[in-house]
Amino acid sequence: MNSALPLVCVCIPTYNAATTIRETLESILEQTYVNLIIRVSDNSSTDETLEIIESMADSRVAVHRHDQNIGGEGNFNRCIQLAEGKYTAIFHADDVYEPNMVAKQVAFLEAHPEAGAVFTEASLIDEMSNMIGEMRLPQGIASPSGLYDFVTIFKAVLRHSNFFICPSVMARTQVYQQELKCWRWELFKSSADLDLWLRILQSHPIGYLPERLMRYRISNSQWSARVRLETERADFFLVIDHYLAQELVRALLDATDFNNYRRLDRRDRVMRAANLFITGYPKQANGLVHDIFSWDALEGALKSKRGAFVLLIGVYMKLLILLKLNKIGKTSLAYIKQVTRK
Hints:
There is one protein chain. The protein has helices at residues 21-29, 49-55, 71-82, 101-111, 150-160, 173-180, 185-188, 192-201, 223-227, 236-244, 247-250, 255-278, 282-288, 295-303, 305-323, 326-340, and strands at 8-14, 36-42, 61-65, 87-90, 96-97, 117-125, 131-135, 147-148, 170-172, 206-217. Strand 1 (8-14), helix 1 (21-29) and strand 2 form a beta-alpha-beta unit. It has 2 domains: 8-227, Alpha-Beta Complex (Spore Coat Polysaccharide Biosynthesis Protein SpsA, Chain A), CATH 3.90.550.10; 254-340, no CATH class. 48% of the residues lie in helices and 16% in strands. The protein is globular, with a radius of gyration of 21 Å. Strands 1, 2, 3, 4, 5, 6, 7, 8, 9 and 10 form a 10-stranded mixed β-sheet that branches. The chain starts with 7 loop residues before the first strand and ends with a helix. By secondary structure, the chain is of the alpha/beta class. Helix 14 packs across helix 15 (305-323) and helix 15 packs antiparallel against helix 16 (326-340).
């Protein structure tokens, strides 16, 4: 290690990650940045996760075994407690990190001491590590410096939904430990990460590197995959509604921002309606798409591909329900969702 360089602590929360942890650890151990330590916080795994980690003998890796499983949120909070050094990254046990990712993030944070954290873009991989897509910073919010403030990001989230890639973030350790302290899962459930980034932004700008410096795995066993089948309102709105309830936040927004919020809400309702229709509840599905023929839905369709998709799916469902084409509707909607999901 080079003590002249800032110490980076990479924390990895694990639970039954035997199929992916080797590839993940290898990608971190092969980073070009040398002053790096790894803290694995294992949440009482019952598979071979720990044996695989121990077989990869490296003095930079320390394993923290926990006899009791306290849930994913508890394990993420333990990672914050285990962190040390100037910078901390909480990487996921099923993703892969490009060799220069840590070096580039450290360089950015060193060059921008006002930044609380820095994110990157990502390539998407499947369960077999095959490339299947990418996740990029939305067009139209590029910054010459790479720094973004709360207003810019919150407005962009209202337009594009949550585009942050959680396992790409590197933050200042003091921001995690002294300011954030914990993920508020009890309030925001699966979207507690978005709340975390917005809390950072209320005190610091953040950086976003326009480079795909990691490979984010999309798996049918992930929590995010199960969320795509939900019929309840997305946890995303727990976060957004929390901040919209704040007078200071609402004062930063204009009519376009609130229109964007309504369009995100309509998209959520249409996708939930599709899930309800697929699972045999056409009446409840119909109730969620009551405004699909509104002028706002039409305007949204003219302004973006997402809006056009929402309108088409909503109208298609209305026709299926009207004509009582339940069987063909279930099959076709399931297929459309499969081929269009990211």
